[in-house]
Specification:
The protein is of the alpha+beta class and 199 residues long. It is built from four helices and ten strands, in the order ββββαββαβαβαββ.
Amino acid sequence: MHLCHRHKGRSQSCKNEEVKIASPRRPHRPIRSDRININNDIRAREVRVIDPDGEQIGIIPTRQALETAAEFGLDLVEVSPNANPPVCKIMDYGRYRYEQTKKKQEAKKKQSTFQIKEIKVRPKTGEHDLQTKVGHIKKFIGRKDKVKVTVIFRGREITLSQFGMELLEKIARETEDIATVEQYPKFEGRTLVMILAPK
């Protein structure tokens, strides 16, 4: 590219100048944190090796570690790539992958979705109405949902807070065979709240 400059009406000769235009950098590809290097994919020159029984062999050259794994008839697996030096374990990688997949599936099953249902009562709720409410609570707990039991105080009923506390304690006792108290009774404004969860 040629650049010319004019100053105060006089033309000035321009020297040829080569202007370098920086090419855009390629974005760095994110490193997959879930990738596990095994055997010849391990790039470190030396590694800390753990044998199949969990005993440390020590820090040795990677080539020697591969030979040791081969003697066991197993794989050399990089289990802590960010350590210095990386930590590798001699193991059956196929079996390891199978066990990890199985653990993930079991964890996923335990993470079942649930909803929080709410049951509202008054401090002077009668026994018949209370048993109806308890029935609803048991039904929700049976569906693996959590239940928020709320005692609502209106006006001067706030002076009956002890009645509300006893009411929630009674509900907890009557559902203790299938539910556990996740949040013990506490005041939220003019309401008293307890949360029950499936056992």
